Amino acid sequence: MKEATEEIWPDLRKQFPLQYDRIYLNTSTIGITPRSVLDSMYSHMEGCEKTGDIGHSTKLWQDVKAGIALLLNCNDTEIALTRNTTEGVNIVCNGLSFNQGDEIITSTHEHVGNTIPWIIRSKRDKLRIRTFEPSKESKETLERIAGLIGPRTRAISLPHVSCASGQILPVEAIGNLVKNQQIFYFVDGAQAVGNIPVNVDSIGCHGYAASGHKWLCGPNGTGFLYIRKNMLESVDAHHVGAYSNIGDFSLRNCKASLINSAQRYEYGTINTSLIHGLNSTINFWSEIDHTKVWAQNKQLTSFFRLGLLDIGAEVITPTESSSILTFKFSGLHYEDLQQKLWKEHKIRLRGIYEGNFNALRASIHIYNSCDEIRRVLQALREAVTELLK
Ligand SMILES: Cc1ncc(COP(=O)(O)O)c(C=O)c1O
């Protein structure tokens, strides 16, 4: 344990501006951006302000999309840049064609960003949302989903990694289940990209959305959406403008052709320095052995899990998950514990109310060490004893 941690820490840790007086375990919400990425972003921004340049270049877009395509195992023309995962969800949810009474299947573990768009759409078009509770057993999860699929099922939307429990859903097997049916298969990858390997091709999904600012540690306000090439016409582009169109529009003939790639979902002026930062983030990861980071994260997570069990926690996250651990203590409200740990130790954890868990979530990433986990366990042990007195 110790050797593996020491191998890539503390040199890597120094690259993150995060103050040393705190223990940050909330990458699932926002990852900490490396200094090199911040620097490249600032200088790009300043350069634009100095020259009046908009900072948009075809090469930058191509580079960043090529980098994302490598991460997801798809073609760069299947990637649209967005501001966050939620924007990707909205593009898909509002772009699909539904008839009254059509059904959408989703899980009870969804983040609000993959819930509200579907609820609002369902209310608008009188659709029916059907939900399943992910089981710790993949086979059972598949059976629950299969039991909900019917002649009116038109879309299935679920997370690759649950933000509530950290559980990895059997997305490939679900892909096989819905294959060749008239069902749009959408995966919310917010907690997956940068946390575990992702391969949209083997998942067999039609759409996959993620954020740059979580496990990739990119700039806040960056994200991307994968739309499988043959699905472009199934996901109508509702927000369009400059960059969506091939440049052939005519008001007189009411004619405009959308680009034959996922770029059709991009429009208007954006902060190009963020895209530059996202590109630097991808370069940052390309210089690090990602698999080594995942292995270290996993080791730390297992160590944390054992420590939690030792102090009497109920660990909700199934074993063999990602680097997210959701846990609770009987008789305690998560907020009391969360606040105490923050106020007294500057330990940042996220409360989990999703799925009625009343739990805390720790996300362990590149800047966390074994020593930090030990300190968190000690702090938890003391806090729980005190709160239960
Ligand atoms: C599973 C999941 N989906 C969507 C989101 C929303 O992400 P964003 O704020 O980047 O849109 C989150 C955020 O934590 C998440 O965990």
Question: Can you offer a commentary on this structure?
Answer:
A hairpin with a 6-residue loop joins strand 12 (350-352) and strand 13. The two termini are 34 Å apart. The chain folds into 2 domains: 2-34 and 289-388, Aspartate Aminotransferase, domain 1; 37-286, Aspartate Aminotransferase, domain 2, CATH 3.40.640. Helix 2 packs antiparallel against helix 9 (272-286), helix 3 (58-72) packs across helix 9 and helix 11 packs across helix 12 (370-388). The longest helix has 21 residues, at 290-310. Helix content is 39%, strand content 14%. With 389 residues, it is of the alpha/beta class. The relative contact order is 0.17. A 7-stranded mixed beta sheet has the order 2-8-7-6-5-3-4, sandwiched between helices. Strands 9-10-13-12 form a 4-stranded antiparallel beta sheet, with helices on one face. The chain binds pyridoxal-5'-phosphate (PLP).
The 3D shape can be described as globular
CATH fold-level label of the largest domain:
Aspartate Aminotransferase, domain 2
The kinds of small molecule bound in this structure are: pyridoxal-5'-phosphate
- Share of helix among residues? 25-40%
- Point out poorly predicted stretches: none
Determine the N-to-C terminus distance: 34 Å
